[in-house]
Write a structure and sequence with these properties.
The protein is of the alpha+beta class. It is built from 27 helices and 29 strands. The two termini are 110 Å apart.
Length: 886
Amino acid sequence: MIQLSSSRAGIGAVLVLAGALQALASVLLGSWHNGDPGLAAALGILIAVLAGAIAGWRVGFAVAAVGWAFHFVFVADDSLRALPGLPAWLSAGVAAGWLAARLHASSRERVLLAHELAAVRDSASDAVVRIDADGSIVGWGAGAAAMYGYSIDEVEGRPLFLLMREDAAEGDAQDAVEAIRRGERIERVNEVHRTKDGAELAVSLSMTPLLDELGTPVGAVLVAADVGEQVRVRERLDEVEAKYRSLTKNLPVVTYVYPPGERAAGLDISPQVEALLGYSAREWLAEPGLFARLLHPEDRERVLDEISLAGESTEPLRAEYRMLARDGRVVLVHDEAVTVRNGRGRPLYVQGYLLDVSERRRAQEEKEHLRAGERAAVVEMRDKQRRLDFLAKAATAFASSLDVNTTLRRVAQLAARELADWILVDVLDEDGDAVRLVAAHTAPGAPPGPHPGSEPEPEVLAVIRSGEHELSQSRICVPLVARTRALGAITVVSTTPGRTYGTDDLALVEGLATTAALAIDVARLYREVDERADAARVLAYVADGVFLLDKAGIVQLWNPAAEVIMGLQAPAVLAHPATDAIPGWEALAERIPVRRAPDDSVPAATLPVETERGERWISISGVEFFGGTVYAFRDLTEDRRLEELKADFLSTASHELRTPLAAVYGAAQTLRRHDFALDEAGRDRFISMIVDESERLGRIVNEILLANQLELGRVDLATETFDPAELVERVADAARIHAPPGIELELDAPDLVPPVAADRDKVQQILTNLVENAIKYSPDGGRIELGVEPADRAARFRVCDEGLGVPTEEQARIFDKFYRLDPEMMRGVGGTGLGLYICSELVERMGGQIWIESRETGGSAFFFEIPYGEVPGSRPVQTARQTGDA
């Protein structure tokens, strides 16, 4: 019937059949109308109802109209009393058709829903299970079979607790059944079920009741999703987030996260921002424009542009800029940020950090300032040392003779080479008139410009009278004053363009003038000793030590300078025999030259004296007069120590030079002889000896010249970038060629050492010196290790040996100039004492450091570091392109 009613042919057939039945009923029952006309009307309405139920309300309406017409004609005999029945006929046919259509649509919908539920159950990846009101499984989808491992035949009709954990299966299943009967929906997260093989399964389930037409629960649909992986992922995410939070909270930097291109809209920032800038993380995130507002006005535009460009680029952001803290501080920060992208390259967020580098920058600036000050101090110290050396020479010259005129001329010649083009010395004679005693100039030849006259200029006389110095760019005039009495003046004059004088030059001339004035005064005092013995009290003001012995050898005068130099106080010496008061006087007295006549000229003697402070060297001479003998002396201990060092060096250098010279001379003499013939191998051996010893001579001479240049500050350092590992390997290869038997040279030069910017040749020279030193002090052979490794902002080079080693008490002096270990202790190992001094000076000038360590296995380990960056004070190496060479 449904199929029939669904087609037009079927509807037509129903309409024809129903019309025929209406006609038949009206005709057949029309003859009975006298008996019961209502029966015919009821039968016609019934036919209309059936037609509407089968084919719809339109057919029911048409059949009802046709039936009423037949009834009106054949049964009612065209009576108007049949008209009120027409609506009843029509309503019955339409109502029946409408009700039939509704029932038909409802039935179709139920069928579709059943098919849809089956399709969902069979295609869903989640488990879809239908259960009845008693909790038994009546529907089982493919997702459920895959998740639990049961087939439909294994679970159909079985209770729900089959799927639940054993310890709570019956209780949970009973709760589910009760919920179904009450028509309640159940939602549970992280429920534990069990599979066919007994494994536990974490699920998230939803149970929805099924109701019949009357709203009575008849079952439920259970949907279970496997959330085990989600739980594990969520736990892992929680763990990662906890670690991230802990890391960002404890890092000494401020970490931040913001959306791509939206630095003002922060997503997260670590709490360290409050310590850095005084704003809490909550304030920072609550105010989007805070970052731009805190940028220093002079840096704001640059920084925002850099951030914008970094957002468009794949390169990370690296910037340094200033920010304003809440308390007004200016904080220099280092900012690094990178854009985090997904697998398709789409930017997700920007993550970075802020590091306070204010202290580092200040420390760097302070370091640079200290280095500049150190360099300036070194230059100043050397200049002062040179001037002190000049003053020492002048003092020695003044102390060497009582002939002041001759001494002044000699000192003036020294000063002319050191200070000026002209040195003028004017002194007051016995009548108080100024006389030009010396007019010395640089040799050879006279300097350019006007020559001074033979008489003192008015400016010089004014200085002598006032006792005040005169200083200009080309002229210094200092009075000669001793014991507040004017003795003359020293004038230095520069006629060379570009040479000017300053306060340092004034101090040097004043020191020279003081020494000259003292020498003049002492000479005059010596002369006065012959005339007046009681004038000895003036010697208390002389810087040199002076003492007087009477004819009996009793000490009558002991000035303060003598107390300081000899370490003997006047009360312990005065009125005592010199043999008792002055240690070793008997031996000293025999060696002290004494001038016994006014015209005698005797040089002062330099002698050692034992004092409480140890051995002191003094320059001493005496003048004999009728009342006794006056002795004058000065302390030359430091000068003596320097002279001994130089003498030791000359002796060592002479010895070191003599040996290769003797070998070269002997080999050359042998080659010149004609009384016996040498084969080719013999000639090659002697020639090789000459070459080797000549190279040794060259190295010694180069060491001496380089040490002298280092002391004078005349060594220029170049700067070039080179691979330290490659340099170490080259030095090792060269050393292996000349290494004696028994020496095993090992190399440790990894490829991860960054390049060094320094003087490559000087670094190679340092390494070569240290390797040769290690070979020299390993007379019994052994292993020598040469290596390099990265250190803090520097490459650390090392040379370790298993040789004789350096005693701990000697390590502090091992880098001193001319210093050599005791030859007896070192088994006669030679050397000039300059190699390690040169290494130390070169490393220091390249901004590095050098040191020595003792090894537990014996031998020594030398280390030095060269910074990675450009060394301050060095000059870049010019290439052919820079100099214009082809």
